[in-house]
Prior knowledge:
Low-confidence stretches: 1-5, 11-33, 746-825
Number of helices: 13
Mean pLDDT: 86
Strand content: 25-35%
Number of strands: 42
Shape: elongated
Amino acid sequence: MVNANPIRRHKRGKDSRNRRLVLETLEARRLLAGLPFGATPADTGEFMLGSVAVTPVLLESTGQIDSSTENWTSQHIQEVLANVGEGVDWWVDLLETKSPLAPLSFTIDTTYAQTPVHTPYEPISRRSNDYYLWTSEFLNTIGFERTGSLETDMRAFNHAQRVKLGTDWAMTIFVVPSLNDSDGQFMAGGSFNRAFSFAGGLFMVVPSTRPASTYAHETGHLFWARDEYAGGGSFYDQRGYYNTQNVNAANNPAAGFEQQPSIMAAGGLLDAAYSTHTSPPSTLAMVGWQDRDGNGIFDVLDVPHQLTGTGYWDSVSGTYKFTGQASVRSLPNQNPSGLGNSITINRIREVEVRFDSGPWQTITAPNASQAELDLSIPLPSHVQQIEIRARDSQTGVVSNVFIGRMNRAAAAAAAGINGSVWIDTNLNGAPDPGEFGQAGWRIELTDAQGNPLQLRTVVEPDNLTTGVLPPGFDPRYTLNSVGTDGDGRIAALTGTGTSTGTRNFHGYSKSLQAFTSLWTSNSRRLQANFSTPTGIVQIDVVAPVEQAVGQLEAYNAAGELLERVTTPALATGQVATLTITRPTVDIAYIIAGGRRNTNVKLDNLQFGPQASTTTAALGTYGFPALPSGTYWVQASSLASNQPLLPHSARQMVAVTAGQVIDEVDFGFGPSASQWHNPSNPVDVNNDGLITPIDALLIINEINLRGARSLVGTDLTFPPFIDTNGDGMLTANDVLQVINYLNSHTSSGREPGGEAESEFAPLRSQPTTLHSQPTGLDSQLTGLHSQSSDEPRQPEAELAGVPPIDRLLAHMDDDEEAWELWFGPV
């Protein structure tokens, strides 16, 4: 009968090791069924963390082929199930002593244990190598679809059990009855006498009279641990997610080596390890238990989530809006065995928020490996700052933190320079809620002189010399073909399968004795070494056939694998760009090629950060993965907006590689200044006349408060003193009027109006601003008392005002004189 309530074994403390087994309903867990992020259905046991489905299969001979010498009893079935449970729980209890954050649980499906599965063979009477007979018979008996490959079919069965039980991994235990056998061993002549396993979450075979420690030992094998006893695994073996060396093996050649108790040893060392719940670091690292930074999170899970998105305060709804995505990320899998997929069991279990550095609060619980976020967050009153992060409460892993303020739009910042553009729509000189920028504004990195920087190197075969690339042809990088079928030589040759132009990268094949554009997953791959480490690398992958998969790996100077990215299965001719962006500048070299025994073609290698970008929808921008140095960041207006903060639209920023620099913002005034007369820019008082009065209105304001930015001031208008419309009050605004008057000396009116004789000629009357008012001087000196809202300036304060006749006499072509009175033009 089917056991609808399988036994679930949880991680727990030592004081509860002898607790009674409990049954748990499956309904809630079925809702969560799904593969770990990065895993395929064939990845059923890559590291021993998370939840594991365990399916004991008890085999009962029918006597049809072999004589039936063994028969299951209810008592013996329960004894076996107890040993299975105790064996897997040994790992649960050991983990409790290693990390309070690491999750581990086993769910045991007793369907094929409570009712043993019939087979015509008597397994214990045969050699161990005959396992394929009764394992295949099991799949046939339960009606599982067969492909002709036992490994493929057993992985498919395990995956089905994983889906059924809602776990991360799955393994099968074939238990052969041996109660009546004289030694409890298989017939001599096979590879194994007693229990044995097939690693990577496949299955183990165990005689029924073996103790619980045997199940613990074989479970270690199923998650890639090697034997450590003499004649078993070797010191030179390497296996597991971190490619760990088997240094506790009995044949360790180090002088004075003393083997430690380990569950993967044998005899007394195994018994000691089992009774004390211990094993050496190398053993535990093989199953995924390694914590190099000592933060309590094993390395395979200690990869921060990635939070991207943009947020802003929406004054209309009274909420903070955030739109983006939270994703888990995986550590590169370095296991030399198995499929090598990079996998994590981390999930985005919670998205949290806090205000002004207060306590974190959960606002949504996606419980997914990737979560699309569209949040409207009510804010307490007087909040100045909001922070958002993604978190996995089960493993303790969190994401980068998004920081938002009420008066600016912001994007989730990466290491490098980040900022935004805002437009001062209310002209108060400060960023306010709702004053966002626009998409498409150009932001550039320049040197101190304003010259654009060239930070990215493009290695495009079409731009290289045709043929074999000579050694040292470019000091910035070197290219080599690596692998057993490469001899190091690279060529840029014409061929099919390009992403740009007509040429792509070719490597010399020793087996073909010719250059080929096909790059393999192992024997011939493209390596690029960089003279200076970089933080960004990308390369184009082209599929020569259906289902081709490309791969890009990044390494640091010590040869450690930093990150690995792969394409999905591609259609013939399809192009995909693989990109790796690091939080710091530490990529010394990359290796690219095929994946999963497929070949690809490679084109258009690029490395280094971009030195220009455009703003996103709300005016945000970012320059990630910048090397250390000093940069000038320059913003260019999309329309006719005028720079406000800073007025130069340039900022100097000192960068340390890996550092997040935020809020490098640029303010712009609206395209039209409110102190600028749209009808006639030089008609300052808007009376329809262009007279010296218009110039004197500007002169008075400069003398009263000085040249300055008008944006953010409370100066009323008219007068329209910003004649050139740049949002600034400077001598240039006076010069606009003076130039007009000089070119229209026959009339003070608008073109077509009647001339006024007292204004001709303008320069014939030597007069100062403080002379007795007569004629023109009367209008000039009377002007100050007529200024709309300004009090009359005491005469002592006007002592520096230049005589108007001297001013006008030099304005045609002598800028130096103008600078003497009002400063640089």
